[in-house]
Design a protein that fits this description.
single chain; 713 residues; Beta-Lactamase; eight-stranded mixed beta barrel; 26 helices; 25% strand
């Protein structure tokens, strides 16, 4: 075999020689295998199967005139890297890359074309797999011709930015205009480090402008793929990973981690950070003032328990909305307090007001840039008014005031947790002293709080050790004279502290829930004592006994059964027991009113205590399930000197009598007060004029010394 034939036969690439008319003159075995034809078929000596065809790179049939050898003959030039496919009938496609060379005779005349091609089927499969993988991964690919300043990229990269091919130029200068100025600096630093040492990755998070002007967040990773012989970088290639959704998700997670999901206000962590920043700034910057207002909403638990958790959540959302509106820059809070608005003119410190929810019904307002304590108090007064307005929850109207504790930078500690603890302590002091108010923190409050904790612990023991006892204050008939009943009042004799004031332990009992056991003890004791007097005194025994009920007791589902059991066990008539509730509780709480109606159905009488100090009015008195109205001692004490108080007492008595209700005036201390109440036609009275609260064993002697009631006229 001639050497030339041997070389052609051993080549892995196919070789075909054609004449100037395109007819195949010679070929090697590799050409036959790659073209999927026999030698006779390739050289035109045998017919080719009609199913055999040549394909373009897009898979469409390629005409003979488009074959690389035909184009070389037609155009008179050599070709390189021309790709085409060959498919036999029912067979797989083979992809070939061809180079062509014009053949000339000794005179330089074209005599034919030599085609040499390699099988690139495997490479194309790998490339397709890579492209599918890149596409599935959402990766944009790019290649940068650094000498020409030209960028090449895939459609995925453009689509991720919101562009279509042709929408944006791909020169280096045009592409740079899409990159955020801050990102250009980052990319430049990463690229220079990589070109100086290719072991250093070229990676940077970039912001690229979208068509709508927004910014896409991408992670761009590149590598130098070609240098000139002198080391000059020629070409880089890399990928873009679209990080926009991830960055947005991270921002959402950061927001969620610092935002209360229910109210969308800053949460506990964010509030504590804000307070700490204010503390740190005050330490660095003399003259910078701040204040923390710690709020807890009175009666929130009652709303939650009576109307349901959904109603409680809605109440919290409405509270948050009021805080947002009240603390908005330039709002009525700032104006009403005489405060500079946020963004005030040069030289005027701007007040920064931030509200957050730290849990349950506890909210915090952080004021930064305040000039002193009075500014914080002015904001607190305005917030109390804004938050005290009625809330509409579905078909219900809810009243809920706030108790606010204030800490200012003038007495603040040097860490957020201590500042918040002190503000919380001041808030509890506001609750203790009447609710619906604000109190500025004083270090002495910690002592009171410690006493409160100690009182609760001692009170638990007192219930076990029977240290609590009941005293009774007589109630007198103002029109006929003589006693007509008693009010049962609880007292506590502590083994070390002696008598503890009810003002000190009743509030603690209510907050801790101990009032339920305490109230049950008083109710049972009072009923048993009334029965004992009736047995021993007969007609001179008190006609009735009154027992106070707290809001916590009224929320107990077992209350009605407990009242019925106490009356039955004592053997007294239901009408001889009168249960007293505060005006605000009976007026605001529909669940409480419903429970009172159940108790009233037993025959037990209901009294409205402290009338005139709460939320109800004469106009809605008929809506309340009560038998008796008790006029608060604060009205009685001013009745002789204030026309307003006297007229209100008279109106209350008239409305109550019209509705068939009895009236009792509390806190009568002088004969002139008793005479005035008698002239105003008040039914009964109680106070130190007749007797202070008496021990159970002292009541009988007191009763026996009093003249009996006069017969009704």
């Amino acid at each position: 075999m001639p050497l030339t034939d041997a070389l052609l036969a051993g080549l892995p690439n196919g070789v075909v020689l054609r004449d100037v008319h395109g007819r195949a003159l010679a070929c090697n075995p590799a050409a036959c295998a790659q073209m999927q034809l026999t030698e006779d078929q390739l050289l035109g000596r045998a017919p080719i199967d009609p199913g055999w065809q040549v394909l373009r790179v897009d898979g469409q049939p390629m005409p003979w005139s488009a074959l690389p050898s035909a184009r070389t003959l037609a155009e008179g030039r050599d070709l390189q890297g021309e790709v085409f496919g060959v498919a036999a009938a029912g067979g797989a496609v083979r992809w070939l890359a061809a180079n062509t060379v014009l053949m000339r005779d000794a005179g330089g005349t074209v005599s034919g074309v030599l085609s040499c091609f390699a099988d690139i089927t495997a490479q194309r499969r790998q490339l397709a797999l890579l492209e599918h993988t890149i596409d599935a991964a959402g990766l944009g690919t790019w290649e940068w011709d650094m000498q020409a300043g030209q960028l090449h990229c895939n459609d995925r990269l453009l689509a991720a930015l919101g562009y279509r091919r042709g929408d944006v130029g791909l020169t280096q200068k045009e592409w740079a205009q899409l990159v955020h100025p801050d990102s250009r600096q980052l990319w430049g630093q990463a690229m220079r480090a990589h070109l100086a040492d290719t072991r250093q990755p070229c990676r940077a998070e970039l912001r690229l402008r979208r068509p709508d002007g927004d910014w896409a967040e991408v992670l761009s990773c590149g590598v130098l793929v070609e240098r000139a012989p002198d080391g000059t970088p020629l070409r880089m290639a890399g990928i873009h990973i679209d990080m926009t959704e991830q960055v947005q998700m991270q921002a959402m997670l950061r927001h969620a981690a610092r935002t209360d999901g229910l109210t969308q206000l800053p949460n506990r962590a964010a509030v504590f950070d804000q307070v700490q920043q204010a503390v740190d700034r005050a330490a660095r910057q003399p003259g910078f003032g701040f204040a923390v207002l710690f709020m807890d909403f009175d009666r929130f638990k009652q709303t939650n328990d009576t109307l349901g958790h959904a109603a409680g959540d809605e109440l919290l959302r409405q509270i948050a909305q009021r805080l947002r509106q009240a603390l908005r820059a330039g709002d009525a809070v700032a104006q009403g307090a005489g405060l500079p608005e946020t963004g005030a003119g040069a030289g005027t410190p701007a007040l920064v007001q931030t509200a957050g929810r730290i849990g349950g019904d506890e909210f915090v307002v952080v004021l930064e840039g305040v000039s002193g304590r009075e500014v914080a108090c002015a904001v607190a007064r305005r917030l109390l008014a804004v938050l005290a307005a009625p809330y509409t929850i579905g078909s219900s109207v809810v009243h809920s005031t706030a108790s606010i504790g204030i800490v200012t930078s003038e007495q603040a500690a040097n860490d957020a947790h201590t500042v918040m603890r002190d503000a919380d302590t001041a808030m509890y002091e506001a609750k203790r002293t009447g609710r619906g108010r604000y109190v500025v923190f004083d270090p002495a409050m910690h002592e009171r709080l410690a006493r409160s904790v100690a009182t609760e612990a001692d009170l638990r023991l007192a219930l076990q050790r029977n240290e609590l006892f009941v005293v009774y204050q007589p109630v007198v008939d103002l029109q006929r004279g003589g006693p007509c009943g008693v009010e049962a009042l609880v007292r506590w004799r502590h083994p070390q502290r002696g008598l503890v004031s009810p003002l000190e332990f009743i509030a603690v009992a209510e907050e801790s829930g101990l009032i339920v056991a305490l109230g049950a003890h008083v109710l049972r004791t009072a009923c048993q004592q009334l029965a004992a007097w009736q047995r021993s005194l007969g007609a001179q025994a008190p006609a009735s006994v009154a027992v106070n009920l707290s809001a916590v007791q009224l929320r107990q589902p077992s209350l009605v059964a407990e009242v019925q059991r106490c009356v039955a066990e004592a053997g007294i008539a239901p009408g001889a027991l009168q249960l007293e509730v505060t005006e605000s509780l009976a007026a605001q709480d529909e669940t409480a009113r419903a429970r009172l109606r159940e108790i009233k159905a037993l025959g037990v009488r209901i009294a409205l205590d402290d009338f005139g100090t709460g939320y109800s009015s004469l106009a809605c008195l008929h809506q309340l399930p009560v038998d008796t109205v008790k006029i608060d001692r604060s009205f009685v004490s001013h009745a002789e000197t204030s026309d307003y108080h006297r007229v209100l007492i008279e109106a209350t008595i008239r409305v109550a009598r019209t509705l068939g209700m009895d009236t009792v005036a509390e806190g009568i201390e002088t004969p002139s007060q008793a005479a005035l109440l008698q002239r105003l036609d008040c039914g009964r009275g109680q106070g130190y004029l007749w007797s202070p609260p008496l021990a159970a064993e002292a009541v009988a002697p007191w009763l026996l010394q009093r003249p009996p009631q006069r017969a009704a006229a």
